[in-house]
Write a structure and sequence with these properties.
Layout lengths: L7 H14 L2 E8 L4 H5 L12 H16 L5 E4 L3 H13 L5 E3 L16 H7 L1 H7 L15 H18 L4 E6 L1 H12 L12 E7 L2 E9 L20
Parallel strand pairs: 1-4, 2-3, 2-4
Antiparallel strand pairs: 1-5, 5-6
């Protein structure tokens, strides 16, 4: 009966590779706190809007929650102020010395809809409004806006770069409703992302080069603060 020879060096390398691939990178995605425009029902897109009083309380609440959980190695944020202000509070309680701004994490540019109220979008900018809710993902929104595919590509690329830099670690990323929706739909291939709530916690894992949704739209930390029930819903017209 013959012997079965094993290449020990090859076997060791295979085992080592499996160990590396099994590492889980955890990214905690946070939507910024409520803003004055969120409360008023205005379309922000990439226009700046300040956190209102409720939004500031939400930022404190989410910071307190995350400060009690496993410490992240880094905190990232969109370069829009509403996200940065939320991220700064989180970084402080998590003992992270800085917040790294990533422009590709900013909200979707929604063209000529920016600055309008949701209730007037269909009447004042019908083409842009229709493009925003269109199922044609490569359709750019009139007025300099992005297509949904463009939003998905830059959002996922930013996430991939952050995960690559912090492989096997826990990272917090503060961003926007549109970006969260894009990430959820790209990962799950679902037809709807549901409501994306202000100051919500959304956790994704990267394991063996595959993205997995661990938890989504958790606002249990806002029970004493409150939040807008309508949230951001890019799948249903107001």
């Amino acid at each position: 009966m013959g012997h079965e020879w094993i290449d020990a060096e090859k076997e060791f390398k295979w085992s080592e590779d499996v160990k590396v691939e099994s590492e889980v990178t955890e990214i905690v995605l946070v939507r910024h706190g409520e803003t004055t425009w969120n409360a008023a029902g205005r379309i922000q897109g990439q226009i700046e809007s300040e956190l209102n009083e409720v939004g500031q309380k939400q930022a404190v609440a989410i910071a307190e929650r995350l400060g009690k959980e496993a410490r992240p190695v880094a905190v990232y944020s969109s370069d829009l102020k509403r996200a940065k202000d939320t991220a700064l509070m989180i970084a402080k309680t998590c003992f992270c010395p800085e917040v790294t701004e990533v422009p590709d994490l900013k909200e979707r540019h929604v063209g000529s809809l920016q600055g309008l109220y949701w209730t007037e979008g269909a009447e004042k900018e019908p083409e842009a409004y229709s493009a925003f809710f269109s199922s044609q993902n490569d359709l750019e929104i009139p007025g300099g806006g992005e297509s949904f595919d463009q939003l998905c590509d830059r959002s996922m690329n930013a996430l991939e770069q952050i995960a690559k830099k912090h492989k096997g670690k826990r990272v917090i990323v503060v961003t926007h409703g549109g970006v969260l929706r894009a990430i959820y739909l790209r990962i799950t291939q679902a037809s709807s992302a549901g409501k994306l709530l202000n100051a919500s916690v959304n956790v994704v894992h990267l394991r063996d080069k595959k993205w997995i949704i661990d938890s989504w739209s958790d606002v249990s930390h806002l029970s004493s603060v409150g939040f807008l029930q309508r949230g951001f819903d890019g799948d249903s017209k107001p």
